[in-house]
Amino acid sequence: MISIKNLQKIFKSGTTQVQAVDDVNLNIEKGEIYGVIGYSGAGKSTFIRLLNRLEDPTSGEIVIDGEDIASLKAGRLRKARQEIGMVFQHFNLLWSRTVRENIAFPLEIAGTPKKERQERVDELIKLVGLAGREDAYPSQLSGGQKQRVGIARALANRPKVLLCDEATSALDPETTDQILDLLVDINEKLDLTIILITHEMHVIRKISHRVAVMEEGKVVEEGDVLDVFLHPKEKVTKRFVEQIMGDQDQDEAVETILAQYQTGQVVRLHFVGEKTNQALISEVSREFPSVSFNILQGKITQTSKGAYGTLYVHMDGTEEDINKAIEYISETSVQVEVNHHVS
Amino acid sequence: MFHKLFPNANVEDLVTATEETLYMTALSVIGTFILGLLLGLLLYLTSKQNIWANKPLNFIVATIVNVFRAIPFIILILLLFPFTEFLIGTIRGPNAALPALIIGAAPFYGRLVEIALKEVDKGVIEAAKSMGAKTSTIIFKVLLPESMPALVSGITVTSINLISYSAMAGVIGAGGLGDLAYLKGFQRWDFDVVFLATILIVIIVFIFQFVGDFISNKLDKR
């Protein structure tokens, strides 16, 4: 659907050169929510602005649905842009227009007839949940509502792809979640490809299917969100994962816990994209009533691909029963680590 | 009562003079608005990193604007006499004042337009670009509507300048309240007429200011 090859952007000012985007290669599938994460200055903002040529690439290819955006002439580029929606961090609504008129704006640009325009605007207002606020001006809306207008506006011309430039970074956590839910909803309903950039791992975790991590203009790591969560290779990725999971290598803490239990077994359970075994603990304890389970420490987080995280559980009972219970768990998709023998 | 206070005033003269002042002001405001918008848009669009970024053109327009703003209005009228005669066919009467009024006020208004356009949120212009808008669409559907309150308060300030310019033009034969105050008042040493002309001009200025503020506030939805 979208294929980006050797994309480069160099900013020149006087004698200094800044390589904002450095040889980026990505393939993004249709219907996918693709996240790009990086700290400020990593080049992610420039990257997303290259995709609809708000910045002109220095070199490289951006092929969207068979058309190389990077080589389009002005007139053709304007047509192509009508099929690429964009949502901005600061909403960028026209204050002089009402909600309805703001959403109609891209349709006016595309030359949609008035009657059709009105129908489409009504549809979009319903889709983003703004019914009743049609005739309000942006100044009368909350941040979340403004972003809903921004999203409706970006969807007006039925784009092939939606670009989100830090779409939730100016919103409070609760509103962020509502907007993310809306994006997931749109992605599923319209099978729309979404590319979003953010500096918040929370956003990636909550809605992305795949993620690319950017640092100094380069994509340093890329893959399924769960894989990246589970096996972060680069230092920067590890730091992002820690944002969500806390530090994974709190060995000291684990040692202290282990020292407290003289009998039984402490096991570490890995939940990796769990959708089916959410009730594992209660299931095992029902199956093995003679074994007692005590959750010691852990962190489980929900991603778009299911639950992900680690639990330390202390199991007490006869050695035979404990071993059976561990065997039972290891037959599920939850991974068990039993190297923490106590006695 | 009126005749006791202003023994030398002729009502008919006053009405004619007021009409002439309003006529000159109204037409020159329209002319200044159009020419000033063009100049302001040119200044803005050709500036650095803008849609039509063009250093030489920007320099030329800015120089013209600065030169015409530097010329005192009374000298500008004299300077433009040949041009006015060619354009209007005469150098007397309200119509003959129009070229000088517009050329005198448009560069000033052009600068105000430029300032107003610079205040338009860059993000909104970018959003319009991302939707595939043409430059003309950006000008007419983004830049002008989004800066309209400032454009209106700018033309209000400019129109008050124009009222005082028109009085100055009156002194050298353009008619209007300035003409009245000078010829029928000052020259005959009838200061009640000068005073009455002053009051009328002040009232006109107040009305312009009030209407301008009202429209500007009404348009501002921020």
Automatic annotation (TrEMBL), chain A:
<keyword id="KW-1003">Cell membrane</keyword>
<keyword id="KW-0029">Amino-acid transport</keyword>
<dbReference type="InterPro" id="IPR045865">
    <property type="entry name" value="ACT-like_dom_sf"/>
</dbReference>
<keyword id="KW-1278">Translocase</keyword>
<dbReference type="InterPro" id="IPR018449">
    <property type="entry name" value="NIL_domain"/>
</dbReference>
<keyword id="KW-0067">ATP-binding</keyword>
<feature type="domain" description="ABC transporter">
    <location>
        <begin position="2"/>
        <end position="241"/>
    </location>
</feature>
<dbReference type="Pfam" id="PF00005">
    <property type="entry name" value="ABC_tran"/>
</dbReference>
<dbReference type="InterPro" id="IPR003439">
    <property type="entry name" value="ABC_transporter-like_ATP-bd"/>
</dbReference>
<dbReference type="InterPro" id="IPR003593">
    <property type="entry name" value="AAA+_ATPase"/>
</dbReference>
<dbReference type="GO" id="GO:0005524">
    <property type="term" value="F:ATP binding"/>
</dbReference>
<protein>
    <submittedName>
        <fullName>Methionine import ATP-binding protein MetN 3</fullName>
    </submittedName>
</protein>
<keyword id="KW-0547">Nucleotide-binding</keyword>
<dbReference type="InterPro" id="IPR027417">
    <property type="entry name" value="P-loop_NTPase"/>
</dbReference>
<keyword id="KW-0472">Membrane</keyword>
<dbReference type="Pfam" id="PF09383">
    <property type="entry name" value="NIL"/>
</dbReference>
<keyword id="KW-0813">Transport</keyword>
<dbReference type="InterPro" id="IPR050086">
    <property type="entry name" value="MetN_ABC_transporter-like"/>
</dbReference>
<dbReference type="InterPro" id="IPR041701">
    <property type="entry name" value="MetN_ABC"/>
</dbReference>
<dbReference type="InterPro" id="IPR017871">
    <property type="entry name" value="ABC_transporter-like_CS"/>
</dbReference>
UniProtKB/TrEMBL annotation, chain B:
<feature type="transmembrane region" description="Helical">
    <location>
        <begin position="57"/>
        <end position="84"/>
    </location>
</feature>
<feature type="transmembrane region" description="Helical">
    <location>
        <begin position="96"/>
        <end position="117"/>
    </location>
</feature>
<protein>
    <submittedName>
        <fullName>Methionine import system permease protein MetP</fullName>
    </submittedName>
</protein>
<comment type="similarity">
    <text>Belongs to the binding-protein-dependent transport system permease family.</text>
</comment>
<feature type="transmembrane region" description="Helical">
    <location>
        <begin position="162"/>
        <end position="181"/>
    </location>
</feature>
<feature type="transmembrane region" description="Helical">
    <location>
        <begin position="22"/>
        <end position="45"/>
    </location>
</feature>
<keyword id="KW-1133">Transmembrane helix</keyword>
<keyword id="KW-0812">Transmembrane</keyword>
<feature type="domain" description="ABC transmembrane type-1">
    <location>
        <begin position="18"/>
        <end position="212"/>
    </location>
</feature>
<dbReference type="Pfam" id="PF00528">
    <property type="entry name" value="BPD_transp_1"/>
</dbReference>
<keyword id="KW-0472">Membrane</keyword>
<keyword id="KW-1003">Cell membrane</keyword>
<dbReference type="InterPro" id="IPR035906">
    <property type="entry name" value="MetI-like_sf"/>
</dbReference>
<dbReference type="InterPro" id="IPR000515">
    <property type="entry name" value="MetI-like"/>
</dbReference>
<keyword id="KW-0813">Transport</keyword>
<feature type="transmembrane region" description="Helical">
    <location>
        <begin position="193"/>
        <end position="212"/>
    </location>
</feature>
<dbReference type="InterPro" id="IPR051322">
    <property type="entry name" value="AA_ABC_Transporter_Permease"/>
</dbReference>
